Amino acid sequence: MQTLVLLALVGFAAQLVDGALGMAYGVTSTTLLLAIGANPASASASVHLAEIGTTLASGISHWRFGNVDWKVVLRIGVPGAIGAFLGATVLSSLSTDAAKPIMAGILLAIGAYLLVRFTFRSLPKVNTAKPLRLRFLAPVGLLGGFLDATGGGGWGPVGTPALLASGRIEPRKVIGSIDTSEFLVAIAASIGFLIGLGAGGFDLGWVLALLIGGVLAAPLAAWLVRKLPPRLLGSLVGGVIVFTNARTILITAEASAPVTTGVLLGILVIWAAAVTFAVRTLRADRRAEAEASATAGTDGSEADAATDGARSSEAAADTAVPAGAERR
């Protein structure tokens, strides 16, 4: 019972992070299941079955808050579902340890780019005149879905940074669209695991606990992503990607505990400094905007007052009676 309650809490926290940042539900949940002794295939299968419910709730919540681009959902979700199905059916019993450090290195580079870009540079205007095309989204979806099924997580870490880096869609819609399209990925992966492992590959107790926690967190996460400024959101996402993949690389390389701890603590310090810098910059920008608006309002009022004064003077001149006319 204590394990199920813990899983529900993990599901809540994982969905809160996933719904707000577009990643981490699968990674967090699968990590805990492996820690309590589940084999990788059963852990990934159970998490994906739970994700059918959590991603549905998350997608509905994001849709209600206006965070979803349905064209992106279809263009990345369908290839993602194909990749997830292939990953679950073909590789459910195989180890993907050899591919993990390579992919972690790629994601680490993307995360570092996002962390620097969003921390030290304001977001460019979203170029909606150039929508994200299928030739870009399809490979991202296929790779993300494949890794998600084989590694118990990966849809968000692959899809979210790729879409953010494109600069063609708002960050909140990146997260909403990635979370919504994950519903298709979860269904396809679950079908693949059902074929590859049978019904015995799922632990329904784990599924129910993760599902309850995730569904409860989904509306709160969808609301939160609308409140976080894009610059701060990008900085947070970049830090998550860097930390997660640096940890994967260190573990794969079998680095010593002191080295691993030192590197991860260093990343946390840099991440905290970056987020602090982003917050201060946002506050400074808001103060500058408020002052500019106040100045514009004052200038407008003075101009209106001057115009009204000029009109009053003209009216007075028109109605004044000349002195000579009075004497006559």
TrEMBL record:
The organism's place on the tree of life at top rank: Bacteria
Keyword Lipid biosynthesis part of the UniProt annotation: no
Predominant cellular place of this UniProt entry's protein: membrane
Record membrane topology: Multi-pass membrane protein
Renumbered residue ranges of the record's region Disordered: 290-328
Compositionally skewed regions (Low complexity) per UniProt: 291-300
Subcellular location: Cell membrane; Membrane
Assigned keywords, A-Z: Cell membrane, Membrane, Transmembrane, Transmembrane helix
Annotated transmembrane regions: 72-92, 98-116, 183-200, 206-225, 232-253, 259-279
Stated family: Belongs to the 4-toluene sulfonate uptake permease (TSUP) (TC 2.A.102) family.
Protein name: Probable membrane transporter protein
Organism: Agromyces salentinus
Lineage, top ranks: Bacteria, Bacillati, Actinomycetota, Actinomycetes, Micrococcales
